[in-house]
Amino acid sequence: MSYRTRLLGAAAVFAALSAPAFAADCEVTHWWTSGGEAAAVAEFQKAFDALGDDKWVDGAIGGSGDTARPIIISRIMGGNPPCATQFNPGKDADDLIDAELILDLTEVAEAEGWRDIVRPSSQMDSCTRDGKVWCVPVNLHSAQWMWTNRKVYEDAGLEPPKTWEDVVAAAPALQAKGVMPLSAAQGWPINLLLMEVMLPALAGRDAYVDILEKKNAEAAGGPEMRKVFEAMDEARKLVDPSTIVPQWNDAVSLVITGKAGANVMGDWAQGEFQVANMVAGQDYDCLPGLGHSPMLNTGGDVFYFPKNEDPAVTAAQLKMASSMISKEVQVAFNLKKGSLPIRPDVDLAAANDCMKKGLAILEDPNNIMPSPAQMMQRETQNAIRDLFNEFFTDPSMTVDDVQAQFVEIIENAPE
Ligand code: BGC
Q1: Ligand 1 — pocket residues by CB below 6 A?
Q2: Distance 266 CA to ligand 1 centre (A)
Q3: Could you tell me which of 180, 172, 222, 173 has the C-alpha nearest to residue 202?
Q4: In three state form, how does the secondary structure of 356-367 look?
Q5: Cα of 348 from ligand 1 centre, angstroms
Q6: Which ligand 1 atom minimizes the distance to the CA of 32?
Q7: What's the whole-number average pLDDT of the chain?
Q8: Is pLDDT above 90 for 95?
Q9: How far is the centre of ligand 1, averaged over its atoms, from the C-alpha of 335 (Å)?
């Protein structure tokens, strides 16, 4: 883009951002309802409300992304859109963009140079369709973390685990004390353990991308993938199905309160440890890639702004997008969220040990993997999620059974 175009873009955006438009109430839908998440989203709200007379109206949807996404999509499709909404970077909003229901953010993105400041570039790619920018990326989350409570192991006379194998080996000693070796939550968290964590850690990055993105059914049925199902077979034996809790943060809370030794969950779990005043590297550990492979996927969150006829709302939407990606707000939000800022040019002196580990891993581009939402349609992800949950909770389903059904899903998956 030429300097002149950029200048003109900047002028137009500045006019929109500083227009004395009437104030708007801006309802923001998201699924950030755990303690850590609520603390983080409050930073966005505080920053937006401080900009002027527009008001953030919180539209939190309880449950999880799986509950919230269909509600948000049907509201936008049905003509009752929120002013702004969270999604994950990926394909979830493609139909809404194609139906011309989403505000085009290209002008503000170009004026503020988002493509130059956002890293990795895959996160801007996820917001770009047909050359235009449709969402603002606000953070980088990765799924590949195991969370362990040091005291639980020390009380059982053990060293805190460093790998998945250590967690498995410690199980009898913990169980003898009435402590769960592994906590689990139903639905997408079980899928996260198998598909996002065990698959790349045990079968490797290439197999992960080959199977999920390239839909290689042969690899899905091959020996590397079999190793993953065998590990999951081992994991399900550590978890009594009656102890599986409904929400991810309930499972993390079992680790925080010492009722369980370990949980595998994305780095958003860090927000919960922070709210509980626990210190990384002292009270708890965060082990990437099951303690083996320091590779992270680049999931996270983005915000879309459904089109609105009211110019005051449009102006508020542009202001909100700009505020969310600004340096100060990036730091305040991400420190509470447990995610990494979407831009590297911010002051992270206050980052905790886990964040520092994540940042160090991401410095090497070879350690970065795409997230499932960037590789597959949501229906495919849901089919896999349901299959893996069945396997985890039904001991009569064998490794052969689950692998055969997995191959079938991959064979029939759309691009
Ligand atoms: C989001 C995170 C969120 C997590 C659990 C993920 O889809 O990217 O921001 O904390 O769900 O609610």
Answers
A1: 31, 37, 64-65, 88, 141, 248, 268, 299-301
A2: 8
A3: 222
A4: HHHHHHHCCHHH
A5: 21
A6: 12
A7: 94
A8: yes
A9: 15
Residue to substitute in 28, 188, 301 for testing ligand 1 pocket (most ligand atoms within 8 angstroms of CB): 301
pLDDT tens readout for residues 18-77: 555 589 999 999 999 999 999 999 999 999 999 999 999 999 999 899 999 999 999 999
Q: Could you tell me where the beta strands, DSSP code E, fall in 177-238? A: 180-182
pLDDT value at residue 42: 98
Looking at the predicted structure, is the pLDDT value of residue 352 above 50? yes
Q: Which CATH architecture has domain 3-142+299-344?
A: 3-Layer(aba) Sandwich (3.40)
* Pocket mutation for ligand 1, best pick of 138, 268, 337 (most atoms within 8 Å of C-beta): 268
| Closest residue to atom 8 of ligand 1, CA basis | 300
**Cα 149 from Cα 261, distance rounded (Å):** 6
Ligand 1 pocket test, pick from 29, 30, 31, 273 with the greatest ligand atom count within 8 Å of Cβ, gives: 31
- Which pTM value belongs to this model? 0.92
Composition of the chain by helix, strand, coil, percent to 5: 55, 15, 30
Which pLDDT value is given to residue 8? 47
What class does CATH assign to 145-297+366-411?
Answer: alpha beta
Cα(40) to ligand 1 centroid in Å equals 12
- Which part of the chain is CATH 3.40.190.10? 3-142+299-344, 145-297+366-411
Alpha-carbon Rg of the chain, whole angstroms? 22
What ligand 1 atom has the least distance to the C-alpha of 65? 7
Could you tell me where the beta strands, DSSP code E, fall in 31-173? 55-60, 84-87, 128-129, 132-133, 135-137, 145-149
Please measure the distance between the N-terminal and C-terminal CA atoms of the chain and give it in whole angstroms: 32
